[in-house]
Structure to design on (789 residues):
């Protein structure tokens, strides 16, 4: 745990007690069984708004508290522990970051207060195929009628069913598969030509496939620079990746705690199974792996807060190390629980399913190793 | 020397201290020693002997050989931040502190343990010699039948009134043949449970009852020995800690050892050949997109570099959380295993990167870096064995940190 200041400790403790009391994994199970289309409990998100979490990154002038990414990460970590579902990451972190980094003064004034008070939910629509590949954007935006016409579709949009608006990554120029010629657009979900359908995923969380059929937007819908949106997109994604890594840290911590608890209570061969070295050494490896991954996650969040020049490197490091670690821990969670871990009645399966989704979103481990190598120049 | 006295002397301003160090280095560091690592007295080839002796003595005079030790015992009483500043300033001009190497196990392990457990008399007699780099210490712990299970050791010390008489055999004693003193773990009571009848004795190596025989390693080097005690003599005054309390003394000493082994790098100390990815590019080449021309290697190289980055960030985090005064503790096991894994993986990668140039033993077909890589690789295998093997560290983590029951060790 990074050395926290008083305010951060307070927020962390508040998040911990709210999550364990009001939004434990049992609530996630209820939500899944109820098959809610947006895949989160609306009252849970309202409570988050009331606690000020949607405003953590937002300057006071727009209604927020401007506490930064490390603080946001503390909350996401607690939510990750209990698999609490909400649009907090998609909107309060990713959507909000896009406006903070790329928004004009008018756009900030129009959107940030609404994101903070929860009346707007803004999410990033980037991927179009089975793997995260922002440069492969094909959805086109062509100039016309004083603005642009968007045509194409996006898949696996986080909280896409709940969103009231999308940040759409579109190709306005450049060659296919190129980082050049991309532009970001702010598009209301109720714009003419926008249609969406929910994806039913193993982790039972909210994703949508969204189609933009000749959607007309004004010139003021452009977020950031025309034809040169990639650096902005990259920076927004990195903030999302660091946030995801913080959530993953919580998910992995909880999976590990459940495993350790089981090792100390389950008896076979006349003793607790944690006394078998074959399991004890793997537990030691997991604990060590967690300490090492935690350092990467906190360093990435701190680097964003201090505007360091190695943000990209650290975010790929954090997402990748955390992904590898969560992958391992989620598998060991099931394995070390034996038969009971395989049952739907037990929570272990939820963690396994969520783990794989978290690994894939905004780039899996392979994606980030490739990116890291490129950043280091080999 | 109290901490506040130190503060007044240097001022609380680190920058002033840095400036002082810089000036001092300009006047006192022999430029010929830049980057020279004295493995043996006088450097590897003995050519810098005079310069090294001067440099050692000047450092010792300032107390900068063991700068965190109290002044009264040859240190400079510096806090963690000042020690780091000193190391950084020295690093800037390529000055290496030879004293921890010259003192063998003295500065890193025996000294800190004497500071904790020693009597005033012991501190005064032993610490200044270590801090001056003139007295080298070895550690006689392992025996042929007591390795990881150190508590089953059988070297016996018998009470003869004012002294002990020691009989038995130690093995893997690093530097025993060139040390003046030995910290030895001995049995002083055979009638009680094995952990409870052990004491820590300090004894001089230059006496008729002590004999050493060097052992050659797979790397060709011969850094350690078999050590034989035949009626060797240790004074009563040189019992460290209480009689039969040696197990607690050694547990603490081993924590200091682990803490001193938690930095991940090449076993030889500094990276001669540059960043690993640059070496790889040189030997393997790149494709038209500038990527290393071996996708499999490139991916494993990335995993390794990420591991190394995570280790470094964790060391920084531990330091930050401890507010600049890292405590020696259980976390050292995590860091030791991580450092070991990274260092060994780096050597294996370097060897693979060098390909057929990465298997040289001697001669002109291989350059100096290539030859050193092979020796480092072989030497590096030891780091997951000594100081508590990798497996023993995992036992410590699962028992002491995770609270899992222990079934692997009895009694
Ligand atoms: C899909 C499925 C179908 C099944 N079908 C049947 C069936 O038809 N009939 C039937 O009778 N049973 C069936 N089983 C039960 C199965 O045989 C048990 O789950 C299995 O024997 C493990 O026992 P356990 O679940 O109690 O786990 P435990 O024995 O409690 O094991 C928990 C963990 O501890 C580890 N462990 C246990 N002992 C040691 C040790 N000495 N050293 C190291 N590690 C150890 C295990 O490897 C595991 O990781 C089924 C199980 C599953 C999942
Ligand atoms: C380069 C080098 C320098 C050294 N310097 C010194 C020195 O200066 N002074 C000194 O006293 N000693 C020194 N040693 C000795 C070192 O401390 C021992 O080698 C070490 O304690 C291991 O003991 P061992 O070699 O007898 O191996 P063993 O203890 O026999 O171990 C053999 C294997 O079994 C494993 N093992 C043992 N117990 C367990 C367990 N409970 N659970 C799981 N696995 C286990 C080990 O991890 C290892 O893989 C040095 C060793 C080396 C290699």
């Amino acid at each position: 745990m990074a050395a926290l200041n008083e305010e951060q400790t307070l927020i962390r403790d508040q998040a911990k007690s709210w999550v364990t009391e009001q939004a434990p994994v049992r609530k996630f199970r209820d939500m899944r069984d109820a098959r809610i289309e947006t895949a989160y409990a609306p009252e849970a998100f309202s409570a988050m708004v009331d606690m000020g979490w949607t405003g953590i990154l937002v300057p006071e002038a727009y209604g927020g508290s401007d506490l930064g990414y490390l603080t946001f990460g503390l909350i996401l970590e607690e939510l990750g522990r209990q698999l609490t579902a909400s649009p907090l990451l998609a909107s309060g972190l990713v959507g909000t970051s896009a406006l903070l980094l790329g928004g004009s003064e008018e756009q900030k004034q129009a959107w940030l207060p609404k994101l903070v008070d929860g009346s707007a939910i803004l999410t990033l629509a980037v991927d179009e195929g089975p793997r995260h590949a922002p440069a492969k954007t094909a959805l086109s935006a062509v100039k016309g009628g004083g603005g642009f016409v968007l045509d194409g579709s996006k898949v696996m949009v986080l909280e896409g069913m709940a969103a009231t608006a999308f940040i759409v990554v579109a190709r306005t120029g450049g060659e296919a598969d190129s980082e050049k010629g991309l532009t970001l657009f702010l598009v209301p979900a109720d714009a003419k030509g926008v249609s969406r359908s929910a994806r039913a995923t193993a982790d039972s969380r909210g994703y949508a496939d969204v189609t933009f059929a000749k959607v007309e937007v004004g010139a003021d819908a452009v977020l950031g620079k025309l034809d040169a949106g990639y650096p902005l997109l990259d920076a927004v994604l990195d903030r999302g990746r660091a946030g995801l890594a913080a959530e993953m840290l919580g998910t992995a911590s909880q999976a590990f705690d459940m495993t350790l608890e089981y090792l100390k209570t389950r008896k076979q061969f006349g003793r607790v199974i944690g006394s078998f070295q074959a399991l004890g050494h793997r537990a030691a490896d997991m604990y060590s792996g967690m300490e090492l991954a935690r350092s990467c996650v906190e360093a990435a969040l701190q680097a964003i807060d201090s505007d360091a020049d190695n943000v990209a490197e650290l975010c790929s490091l954090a997402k990748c190390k955390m992904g590898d670690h969560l992958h391992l821990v989620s598998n060991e969670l099931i394995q070390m629980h034996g038969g009971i871990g395989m049952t739907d009645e037990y929570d272990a399966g939820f963690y396994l399913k969520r783990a794989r989704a978290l690994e894939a979103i905004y780039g899996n481990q392979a994606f980030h190793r490739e990116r890291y190598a490129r950043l280091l120049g080999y | 020397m109290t901490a506040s006295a130190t503060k007044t002397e240097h001022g609380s301003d680190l920058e002033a201290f840095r400036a002082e160090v810089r000036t001092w280095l300009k006047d006192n560091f022999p430029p010929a020693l830049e980057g020279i690592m004295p493995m043996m007295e006088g450097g590897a080839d003995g050519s810098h002997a005079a310069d090294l002796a001067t440099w050692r003595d000047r450092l010792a005079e300032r107390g900068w050989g063991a700068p965190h030790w109290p002044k009264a015992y040859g240190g400079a009483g510096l806090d963690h931040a000042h020690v780091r500043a000193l190391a950084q300033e020295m690093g800037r001009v390529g000055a290496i502190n030879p004293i921890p190497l010259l003192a063998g196990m003295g500065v890193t392990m025996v000294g800190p343990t004497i500071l904790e457990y020693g009597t005033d008399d012991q501190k005064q007699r032993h610490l200044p010699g270590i801090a001056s780099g003139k007295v080298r210490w070895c550690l006689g712990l392992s025996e042929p039948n007591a390795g990881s299970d150190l508590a089953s050791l059988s070297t016996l010390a018998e009470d003869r009134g004012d002294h002990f008489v020691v009989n038995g055999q130690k093995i893997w004693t690093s530097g025993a043949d060139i040390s003046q003193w030995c910290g030895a773990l001995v049995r002083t009571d055979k009638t009680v449970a094995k952990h409870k009848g052990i004491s820590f004795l300090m004894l001089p190596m230059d006496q008729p009852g002590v004999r050493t025989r060097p052992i050659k390693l797979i790397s060709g080097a011969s850094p350690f020995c078999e050590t034989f005690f035949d009626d060797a003599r240790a004074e009563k005054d040189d019992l460290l800690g209480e009689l039969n309390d040696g197990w607690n003394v050694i547990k603490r000493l081993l924590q200091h050892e682990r803490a001193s082994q938690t930095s991940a790098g090449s076993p030889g100390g500094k990276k001669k050949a540059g960043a690993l990815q640059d070496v790889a590019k040189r030997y393997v080449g790149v494709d038209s997109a500038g990527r290393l021309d071996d996708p499999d290697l490139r991916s494993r190289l990335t995993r390794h570099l990420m591991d190394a980055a995570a280790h470094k960030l964790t060391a920084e985090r531990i330091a930050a959380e401890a507010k600049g005064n890292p405590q020696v503790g259980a976390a050292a096991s995590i860091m030791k295993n991580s450092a070991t894994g990274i260092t060994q993986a780096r050597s294996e990668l370097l060897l693979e990167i060098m390909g057929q140039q990465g298997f040289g033993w001697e001669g002109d077909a291989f350059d100096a870096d290539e030859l050193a890589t092979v020796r480092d690789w072989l030497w590096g295998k030891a780091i997951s064995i000594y100081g508590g093997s990798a497996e023993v560290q995992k036992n410590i983590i699962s028992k002491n940190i995770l609270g899992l029951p222990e079934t692997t060790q009895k009694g």
Remarks:
- The pocket of flavin-adenine dinucleotide (ligand 2) is lined by residues B 138-142, 147-148, 172-174, 224, 382, 385-386, 389, 391-392, 395, 408-409 (CB under 6 Å).
